[in-house]
Specification:
Length: 90
């Protein structure tokens, strides 16, 4: 069985309820995951691997993965910077 992956370039920062969160939005995520609910994923953001993290709903019909301060520091990036992302559903 082949596990589907999705690779894309994203800008860090997703607007949620009038605030910008340090997340990356997954394009066409509902079609990719087959649901509009939170799902567990493995993600790679540039060279940083995030295992078994939640792809949360954005509130506007998509999903996003949060990048905490430690991850952003490791990346050397912050809100407004672009990253290469690969997500794989668990």
């Amino acid at each position: 069985m082949t596990t589907a992956t999705k690779t894309f370039t994203a800008t860090i920062g997703v607007e949620v309820k009038g605030e910008t969160w340090s997340c990356v939005e997954i394009p066409e995520s509902v079609d990719f995951f087959g649901t509009g609910k939170t799902v567990r994923v493995d993600a790679q953001v540039d060279d940083v691997v995030l295992e078994n993290v939640g792809a949360m709903v954005t509130g506007t019909g998509g999903h996003m993965v949060s990048l905490n301060a430690k991850v952003r520091k490791t990346l050397g990036k912050d809100i407004g910077d672009q990253v290469q992302v690969t997500v794989t559903p668990r």
